Amino acid sequence: MTYSSHLIALLKSKYPDCIPLDEIGRTLTLKQTDTSDLIADLGEKGYPLNQSKEGIRFELPLINSDSIKADLRTRRIGRNLIFKDRIPSTNELALNKLNSFSHGDIILTDFQTNGKGRMGRNWQASLGKSIALSIVLKPAIENKQAVLLTQLTAAALSKAIDQITHSSIKWPNDMIVNSKKVAGILTESHFSGSSLEGIVIGVGINTNMSTEDIDNNLRSKATSLLIETQKIVDPNSLITSFIQWFDELYSSWELTNDSSPFISICKEKSILMNREIIVRSGEMNRPGKVVDINPLGELIIKYAGQDSLESLQTMDFSIRGKDSYI
Prior knowledge:
Blueprint: H1 3-14, H2 21-28, H3 32-44, E1 49-52, E2 55-58, H4 65-71, E3 81-87, H5 90-96, E4 106-116, E5 122-125, E6 130-137, H6 143-146, H7 148-161, E7 168-170, E8 174-177, E9 180-192, E10 195-206, H8 225-229, H9 235-256, H10 260-269, E11 276-281, E12 284-293, E13 299-303, E14 310-312, E15 318-321
Parallel strand pairs: 3-4
Antiparallel strand pairs: 1-2, 4-5, 4-6, 6-10, 7-8, 8-9, 9-10, 11-12, 11-15, 12-13, 13-14
């Protein structure tokens, strides 16, 4: 580990307490000037530092993989956590080096600079203000079953967020709090020829973003847990809860091949159920009403002017309310 990594780990372990500068120097065996330079470097890199006469501390809690590991009680998912201080994209790393990861591995980062969401939308994780993680899966399933994993993830994520504030699910992959998006899911599959080699599930959560941190163009439809609750969110307890829920639902599904436990959560938490919506795909806008989510994880819609029902399973579309985001 570098001196920088040692200091980051020390500040994380002591959060929210201050650490005197001389204690940092003794712990890292650094001279006072070197300690000051190291702290200045962290500040330039964007770490949320607060320095006072008592010492220095992080203003916000950051991801602490040791804390998560200590609290996890899972069967397979998350038994191996890979933490990166900063990275372009957790999903990109997982997909590019899929052979080096095992089933159930989870990649986490404090700072994601080039993440993406569904349909190629950009998504970044700011230091102390967002969570970015990816779950690596290497299941023995057919590709048509892989689409269910987004719904399983949505059910687990909603349950975890509910421990902080009430959430809803906007099918297929958005978490909603007070009619605004607070988190999203991106599921990507990797094939070798026609053989499924692995699946990577990316999760992004806006935890401690302020209103000013959200782009002006997105404030009408995006929010954070801090904005909605007015309380600083501990990312570690939220991540731990999410992994626990994911492991429980995934282990059950793997054993029984029964999707009903998590599909029932998705239906119960759906913000679209029995709502009038617009399905957008390219230049096409089709009004309809959501009537169900079937056991395959597909959204069942009755389009205006039709008596028959249709299922949505492709990802090349977006869903909006008739006059708003929802």
